[in-house]
Amino acid sequence: MSYLRTFLPWIVFAALPSGDWQWAALAALVVAVAVIVQQIRAGAGFDALIIETGSAVFFAVLAVIAFANPDSGVHDYSAALSAGTLAVIAGVSLAIGKPFTLGIAKRTTPREVWGLKPFIQTNVIITAVWTAAFALTAVVLAVLAHAGNAHSTPATLIQVAGFALPMIFTVRYVAHVQAKAGAR
């Protein structure tokens, strides 16, 4: 559930009709802000809101661009820019030693585990996979947009895969790590 909540603004943006991209960007911004407010009220710290904060900033900028010029060329590249932004956010979280998945994992992990090297290393690996998936998704979507297929079925499938594959990896890898730890 934590990952779904984290990526809800992006899901909203992707699910709304591309012809109404300015409203989709505004809806995603509203959802991002609502998630941040809800999570702060629930006691989440900034480390648990890295993607959410980046999402709010991205969708605020995108909404301004989209409302200022609904026919902007940015529209065709908005999916690629979305994935690219997520790759940058995730990559920066790794670079500063605060992998974005760490904050999410802390929501369901006992506090005494948070500082342990295996817990941190697991989150570094998971965040690296998400970063790579976002980057690859951005490149493929940019190529499709450049070819005039930004709003095609293949582009939609690439967007879904860009979230589904790292999600599957995360679930399986965490299960693997937990099973390995349980065997010790």
UniProtKB/TrEMBL annotation:
The chain crosses the membrane at residues 20-37, 49-68, 80-104, 124-145, 157-175. This is Integral membrane protein. Keywords: Membrane, Transmembrane, Transmembrane helix. It comes from Streptomyces lutosisoli. The keyword Membrane applies.
